[in-house]
Amino acid sequence: MASGPMSSADSSSLSTPEELLDTFDSALGRHDDSSSLGSDSELNGAAPYRQTDRYGFLGASGAQDGPAQPPVELVRHRENRWLEMTSHWEKAMARRYKKVKVLCRKGIPSSMRARCWPLLCGGQASMTRNQGKYKELEQSPGDPQWLETIEKDIHRQFPFHEMFLSPEGHGQRGLLQLLKAYTVYRPREGYCQAQGPVAAVLLMHMPAEQAFWCLVQISERYLPGYYSPEMEAVLLDGEVFVALLRRVCPKAYKHLQKHDVGPLLYVTEWFLCLYSRTLPFPTVLRIWDAFLSEGVKVLFRVGLVLVRLALGSSEKLRDCTGVVETLEKLRSIPARLLQEDTFMAEVYDVAVSDRDVERECQSQLAKLCKVRPDFRYRPERRLPNAKAVFDAQQLEDAQQPEKGKHPAPTFLIPEIVERRKEQRRQEQERHQQEEVRRRQEEAAAEKQTRKKKPPGRKKPDTRGKTFHMAQHPMLSPAQGGGKGEEPGPAKRNSAPYLETYF
């Protein structure tokens, strides 16, 4: 049994791209629900389960399951904060990224995801920079081989969502065009099955062109190498995940090592599909909010929480006597533990930082290169978060002055936001005018008080003066001084014997 997350024995059992694809194909096979869709009449709305939940999935009951929704006032407050921030997006990302991250952790309002996700991942800037490119890709015939593969997989993507019910519906047609456009845009990578659910979630929230550029950003900026034919990035991140698991949850790590449960048996579907086929949809949306803001670190944290919930105690491991039982335990976590607020609170408590992920990437990469000299993937191309994506796009614009800086995305700001801005401006001006008026009144009152006060006796200014004393000689009686008259006492206001001059 290997003592670390990577050894020669481990690498030989999970190293080939073919085995990686077989693992993912088997995972997709478990979720192929197309046989349960029913007849055409059911798809056309005749079935009684036609009612949908707030996310568009069929089979919702009259009362929505799950936790109570936040108050309308709180939702409106969050929407207004996002509206104000997205209308000054460059300033927000350049100076207030920490605030953006905090708001993403609280959850982006459903009505704002179509606007926020493209801004966070850089899809909006890419679309603005490549005006008309998607229409050109969409009109291209594409590779028939890729088209055939995509058409076989389309029906697997959320078959119980109202957008993807019918093969002739706008959802499946739009998804087909989007995935075909990606194979034309990146012919070397072509099509990967895991891109289907990712593109489908994007299409649920935004038009096809925006969804396409978001998929490009996720594939090239956040997860480079994930959807390539070799899938070496997934292999590396699987080893990184095991190394982090050894530190965060040693009990689960020892159990997985004991039963030889390799990371690619469970993290392949988790990471490639961004948990869209694994967790409840409200939780998936919250994970995407955090992932587009904070990067791949979120995928590791979510996976660590799932393993800890399934295998983190001796009681949970009691029935896991082999590989099959262990994998089933990972797939059957109670739904109450996956509720979005509770689950995401645990995700944010996991002590894994960007630096931890980067350090483990370099360590596991060195081990893989020793075992497999032909290993070509390097994680330097992966950007850690939305701020890094924004900075990279700003640098690209600065290095291409001949094309000119692409204009900032323009949005229609709702009237209520403009009205509140005007009210705040008017209130600020009124407050400033009242302050000026108050100061003027105080100055006038002080001036009036000084006029009414009687002037006091002014003290002589003696500072810096020189005192001179003159002595008068005493005259004898012969000189007219009288008959020996004695000088009388000095009287008030009379000249003293010694006169002082200033």
Main attributes of the structure:
2 strands, Cyclin A, domain 1, Rab_GAP_TBC_domain, two-stranded antiparallel sheet, 2 domains, elongated, 502 residues, Carabin, mainly alpha, disordered N terminus, Helicase, Ruva Protein, domain 3
Could you explain how this protein is built, in words?
By secondary structure, the chain is an all-alpha fold. The protein has 2 domains: 22-33 and 70-230 and 394-419, Orthogonal Bundle (Helicase, Ruva Protein, domain 3); 231-384, Ypt/Rab-GAP domain of gyp1p, domain 3 (Cyclin A, domain 1), CATH 1.10.472. The protein has 24 helices and 2 strands. It has helices at residues 8-13, 17-30, 40-43, 72-86, 89-95, 97-106, 113-121, 123-129, 133-139, 144-153, 170-185, 195-203, 208-222, 232-248, 250-258, 267-272, 281-294, 297-311, 314-317, 323-331, 340-349, 354-371, 386-398, 415-452, and strands spanning 468-471, 498-501. It has a two-stranded antiparallel ribbon with strand order 1-2. Helix 17 (281-294) packs parallel to helix 21 (340-349) and helix 18 packs across helix 21 (340-349). The radius of gyration is 39 Å and the shape is elongated.
